[in-house]
Amino acid sequence: MDHLTYIIAAYGLTMLVAGGFTVDAWARMRRARRRLAAIDPREARMEQRSANRP
C-alpha cells in the first residue's frame, strides 16, 4: 500500500465516522423533541410559531 492509498482510506474512514455521528445526533434530536412535545405541549406550539416566521 503506497502513501496515497493510505491517505485516501484514512480520509474516507474519517468522513464515514463523522457522517455517522452527524446522522446519530440528528436522529437523537428528533426523538428528544418528540418526547418533549409529548410531555410539554407548549414546546410543540413554540416550534410551530418559529417555523411560520420568515
Automatic annotation (TrEMBL):
The keyword Cell division does not apply. Its main location: membrane. One of its GO terms (cellular component) is plasma membrane. Keywords: Cell inner membrane, Cell membrane, Cytochrome c-type biogenesis, Membrane, Transmembrane, Transmembrane helix, Transport. It is found in: Cell inner membrane. The chain crosses the membrane at residues 6-27. It is a single-pass membrane protein. It comes from the Bacteria. GO terms for biological process: cytochrome complex assembly; heme transport. InterPro entries: Haem_export_protD_CcmD (IPR007078). It holds the Pfam family CcmD. Required for the export of heme to the periplasm for the biogenesis of c-type cytochromes. Belongs to the CcmD/CycX/HelD family. This is Heme exporter protein D. It comes from Rhodovastum atsumiense.
